[in-house]
DNA sequence: AAGATGATTGCCT
DNA sequence: GGCAATCATCTTA
């Protein structure tokens, strides 16, 4: 897969692929695209900072940031110098499920990697993994068949640019996260159809 | 050095 | 559906 294309194009193709981190693999079932200067909802909207530097690298690395104490993982896209990334929001554990269960005690299997913060916790990904090149450091992306039913909708919990349907998910998966809207988005689209 | 913010989560009603 | 916990990062002084 060519990861130097823009995130919006890569995002739906990531569904069905397997993301493997140090022996634990998840089949990706939910993603969101984030671009750079043209995307007010993106971390890179206002230019490079110490945190988002990985978003400006060439496609093929990962960008890991922390929010509210949780780590979130993105697949960096686009050519070097252009900010573009796909947030991996949820997956189904297909490999190393015993270890994933230990990291997420009391959670049913389908929910082990449901939600971007939970997915990183199940995989053991932290901010220390930021900037890792896929295929190194025990982290790799394995191509897989696209799901039969791919749906698109607005991104979850973003406070700006909430009209863009840049979220993609496998309609047939029980591991897709809850799609909560930011209050500003709810005010603008009170009759937003659910997924 | 201190205050505001948020691509979240989980518990509450 | 509402909201509080929680903390790295960024802004302002």
From TrEMBL:
Stated name of the protein: Putative 3-methyladenine DNA glycosylase
Annotated NCBIfam families: 3mg, PRK00802.1-3
Gene3D superfamilies reported in the protein's UniProt record: Methylpurine-DNA glycosylase (MPG)
Keyword DNA repair in record: yes
GO-annotated biological processes: base-excision repair
One Pfam family hit: Pur_DNA_glyco
EC numbers: 3.2.2.-
Keyword terms of this UniProt record: DNA damage, DNA repair, Glycosidase, Hydrolase
HAMAP family given in the database record: 3MGH (MF_00527)
GO molecular function, one term: DNA binding
Recorded family membership: Belongs to the DNA glycosylase MPG family.
Matches recorded under InterPro entries: Formyl_transferase-like_C_sf, MPG, MPG_sf
């Amino acid at each position: 897969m060519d990861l130097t294309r823009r995130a919006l194009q890569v995002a739906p193709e990531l569904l069905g692929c397997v993301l493997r981190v140090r022996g634990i693999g998840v089949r990706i079932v939910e993603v969101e695209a984030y671009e750079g200067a043209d995307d007010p909802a993106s971390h890179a909207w206002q230019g490079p900072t110490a945190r988002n530097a990985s978003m400006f690298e060439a496609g093929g690395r990962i960008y890991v940031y922390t929010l509210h104490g949780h780590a979130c993982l993105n697949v960096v896209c686009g050519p070097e110098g252009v900010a573009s990334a796909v947030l991996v929001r949820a997956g189904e554990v297909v490999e190393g499920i015993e270890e994933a269960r230990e990291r997420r005690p009391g959670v049913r299997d389908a929910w082990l990697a449901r939600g971007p913060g939970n997915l990183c916790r199940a995989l053991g990904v932290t901010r220390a993994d930021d900037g890792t090149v896929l295929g190194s450091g025990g982290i790799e992306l394995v191509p897989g068949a696209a799901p039969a039913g791919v749906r698109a909708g607005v991104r979850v919990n973003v406070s700006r640019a909430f009209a863009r349907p840049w979220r993609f998910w496998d309609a047939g998966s029980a591991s897709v996260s809850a799609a909560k809207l930011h209050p500003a988005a709810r005010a603008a689209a009170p009759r937003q159809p659910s997924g």
